């Protein structure tokens, strides 16, 4: 409280007048006891009033200094209040971000819809791959309808996918439903997308339910990729090159329907094991060739099939991985971005299945009866560079002995190997190279043209990735590949490698020297 100088003077005059009046009354009525008592009371009140006036005068003299102190104090208080308000605002923003029920959030896995309680959640993800391809094959010695154009080029939508995954009831009940829009409906039962008539149809890749029991134990049932070859298990959107290798296409088990138990794989766990039992696995190039100029056929597996199709007596697969350094999530892709820590992982896989005829009666000796396979792989991430190498072996048993170029055989011993690596020149540009080789052991059955050679694969590919703004979700990839051997059993239109021609004159001859140039723009969301 601050008083003006005029107010102080008024109070002083009033005090003086009161003092004089009291003195006069005391002198006139000195002998009256009542009057004396009143005078004493007035004197006490006067002294109290004087003390208050003295205090007010002291405050008035220090008024400017006191006002300045109050101003500084108030400013400090205002600053503190503003800081508290901003902190509260940030806290509310953070809570709003983590507790939002829909939108996009990196920590929530991208686009999502969730319940406020956190018991239900659905992520929406998509993939688009638009590709331009130029393929050159030699048609020397081919005649009639077998004489294809040497050069083919054009655009294709290699992959168009949308997936819905998350959990219900609580985070331990997971699910994934992934829809694909095929380039064609040509061979959906084979578990791949094969060019036929250019129509677009929708199908399903992943369709599974998973229960997490805690302590690194999960159980999955439905349709998904069996745990076998690492190159296949890494999603198509996280590959190093434009497409997976031809070796992978021949030996991988692709999608199957069944049940899988997974152990380990948590942060801090050095091991992860996956065991699968279910219906049959897709197996390319496991049938005896129908002619010397044809590629070996295969078994379609249980991709999008009913229980009564493509029967098996049993089908098992398993995979064991050892994380030597780094984190498990680093091996969700086949590259190593700058800034990542050093990591390496060693993996082993196995599969076995016995095929069962769909009808009773005699079965041809050339019919495939069973097969088993094994693979081993090593992945190393250097934080800006990567190396991935693996080998695979498969033994295929036939029902009986089949004539060959040198006698008879009831089996095929097949193998393949891949080595690839990449290096980031900058945050946006990554160069890469790959070499692959393989042998399906089927030429011995091509007895009509003994010089036909369609079982081998020896192919080198090199190129680069460009990540727009260093973002992983938009990537341009260009690569060039050259095949040193004829492409036959390893042909894969999904990888844009087509079957080379084989002449039927004399002992026959398979052309080689096929090359492919691919450019692909990929967008993920």
Task: Tell me about this structure.
The protein is α+β, with helices and mostly antiparallel strands. The chain has two domains: 5-61; 129-524, Porin. Helices cover 19% and strands 41% of the residues. The protein is built from five helices and 18 strands. The protein has helices at residues 5-28, 33-61, 63-99, 230-233, 246-251; strands at 102-105, 110-114, 121-136, 151-167, 173-181, 202-214, 217-225, 255-264, 271-278, 312-325, 343-355, 368-381, 385-404, 407-424, 429-439, 456-467, 474-483, 515-524. Helix 1 (5-28) runs antiparallel to helix 2 (33-61). It starts with a helix and ends with a strand.
**Regions with pLDDT < 50 over 5+ consecutive residues?**
1-32, 91-96, 186-198
- Strand portion: 35-45%
Question: What's the Cα radius of gyration?
Answer: 42 Å
Tell me the CATH topology of the largest domain.
Porin
What is the molecular shape?
elongated
In CATH terms, the superfamily of the largest domain is Porin
Report the average pLDDT across residues: 86
Number of helices: 5
Cα(first) to Cα(last) distance is 66 Å
Number of domains: 2
Sequence of secondary-structure elements:
HHHEEEEEEEHHEEEEEEEEEEE
């Amino acid at each position: 409280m601050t008083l003006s100088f005029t107010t102080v003077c008024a109070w002083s005059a009033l005090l003086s007048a009161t003092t004089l009046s009291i003195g006069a009354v005391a002198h006139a009525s000195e002998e009256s006891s009542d009057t004396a008592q009143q005078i004493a009371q007035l004197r006490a009140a006067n002294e109290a009033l004087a003390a208050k006036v003295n205090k007010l005068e002291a405050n008035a003299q220090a008024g400017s200094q006191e006002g300045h102190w109050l101003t500084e104090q108030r400013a400090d208080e205002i600053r503190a209040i503003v800081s508290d308000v901003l902190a509260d605002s940030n806290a509310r923003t953070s809570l709003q971000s983590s507790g939002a029920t829909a939108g996009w959030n990196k920590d929530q896995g991208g686009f999502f819809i969730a319940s406020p309680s956190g018991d239900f959640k659905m992520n929406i993800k998509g993939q688009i791959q638009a590709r331009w391809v130029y393929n050159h094959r030699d048609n020397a010695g081919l005649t009639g309808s077998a004489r294809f154009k040497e050069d083919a080029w054009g655009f294709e939508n290699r992959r168009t996918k949308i997936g819905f995954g998350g959990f219900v009831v609580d985070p331990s009940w997971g699910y994934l439903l992934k829809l694909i829009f095929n380039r064609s409906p040509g061979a959906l039962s084979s578990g791949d997308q094969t060019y036929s008539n250019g129509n677009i149809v929708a199908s399903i890749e992943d369709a599974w339910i998973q229960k997490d029991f805690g302590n690194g134990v999960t159980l999955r049932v439905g349709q998904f990729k069996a745990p076998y070859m690492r190159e296949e298990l890494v999603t198509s959107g996280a590959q190093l090159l434009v497409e997976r290798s031809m070796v992978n296409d021949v030996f991988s088990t692709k999608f199957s329907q069944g049940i899988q138990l997974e152990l380990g794989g948590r942060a801090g766990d050095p091991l992860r094991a996956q065991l699968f039992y279910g219906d049959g696995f897709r197996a390319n190039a496991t049938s005896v060739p129908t002619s010397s100029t044809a590629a070996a056929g295969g078994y379609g597996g249980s991709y999008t099939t009913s229980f009564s199709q493509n029967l098996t007596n049993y089908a098992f697969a398993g995979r064991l991985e050892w994380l030597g350094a780094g984190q498990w999530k680093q091996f969700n892709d086949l590259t190593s971005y700058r800034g990542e820590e050093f990591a390496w992982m060693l993996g082993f896989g196995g599969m076995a299945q016995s095929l069962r005829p769909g009808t009773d009666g005699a079965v041809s000796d050339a019919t495939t009866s069973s097969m088993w396979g094994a693979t081993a792989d090593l992945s190393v991430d250097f934080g800006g560079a990567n190396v991935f190498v693996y080998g695979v072996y498969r033994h295929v048993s036939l029902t009986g002995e089949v004539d060959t170029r040198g006698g008879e055989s009831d089996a095929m011993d097949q193998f393949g190997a891949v080595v690839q690596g990449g290096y980031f020149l900058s945050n946006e540009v990554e160069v890469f190279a790959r070499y692959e080789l393989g042998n399906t052991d089927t030429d011995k059955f091509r007895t009509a043209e003994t010089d036909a050679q369609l079982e081998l694969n020896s192919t080198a590919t090199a190129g680069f990735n460009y990540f727009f703004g260093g973002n992983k979700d938009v990537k341009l990839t260009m690569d060039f590949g050259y095949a040193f051997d004829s492409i036959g059993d390893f042909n894969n239109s999904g990888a844009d490698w087509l079957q080379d021609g084989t002449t039927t004159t004399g002992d026959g001859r398979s052309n080689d020297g096929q090359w492919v140039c691919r450019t692909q723009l990929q967008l993920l969301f």
